[in-house]
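Q: Here's a chain of 236 amino acids. Please give me its 3D structure as C-alpha cells.
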Amino acid sequence: MSNNTLLEISDLSVCYGRVTAVRNVSLTVGSGEIVAILGANGAGKTTLLNAISGILAPQSGSILYAGKQITGMKPWALSRIGLSHVPEGREIFPGMTVEANLKLIDVDGGGSKFSIDDVLAMFPRLAERFDQMAGGLSGGEQQMLAIGRGLMASPKLVLFDEPSLGLSPMLSKTVLSAIRRLKERGISSLLVEQNMRAALKIADRGYVLRIGRITAEGSAREMIESPDIQRAYLGL
C-alpha cells in the first residue's frame, strides 16, 4: 500500500450461500480521491460496499484501511476509525426530527470535522426542516439528511450507495455536487451510482463491476471516452 492509498481491497469474494456475488475483486481508493463503481443492477456493487463496511463477512480476500487490516470488523468499530457508509435506502430514523437524527451520531472518526451548522450550510433545505420529523421529508431531503448524518462521524472515507436514486435531476445534481465538495476537505469517497455519466463527472477514477468481477478500470476521462464502456454502460 502506497502512502497515498487509504483503502486497498485484494482478491475479495463475498457469497450468499452457494452464490458468489463478488469474486476476486481488487481496487484502491487514494486519500482525497473519488472512485466510482459502475455496473448494471445485480453486478454486486451494494454487496461490495456492505463487505467493506462490515455488514457482510467476506468469504476470502483482504481489506486494508490506512494500512490496517479491517476485514471482518463491525460497522460501529469502522466508523470510529473514519469509515462511514451512506447506504441505499437512506436508513434514517423517520420518527425523529432532522436535528435528532444529526445529533444521534456521537463518533469521531478522526477525519474532517463537521458540525450541524456545516451540514446545514451544505444542505440549506435541511435548515428549513430542522424541527420536522425525518419521515415527512421528501426523498431528496432524506438523502441529504443521510449524507449529513454520515459526515457527523468525521469520516476519512465515505461509501455512497446510489445517492441519487429516485431523485429529480435538480436534487441529484445537488447531492452529487456535495459529494464532490467533500474532496476539498480531504475526504475520500467510494461511489456506487446509477447515473454513471454523472458519477464519472465528479470521480477521479472508476471501476466496472460485471457479475461480481472487475472487468475494466481507468481514469474517469478514459472511461467516459471508451467506446466499449459507452455502449455497455452509458447508453451510447
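Q: Can you summarize the key feature?
A: Residues 39 and 182 are 24 Å apart (CA to CA).
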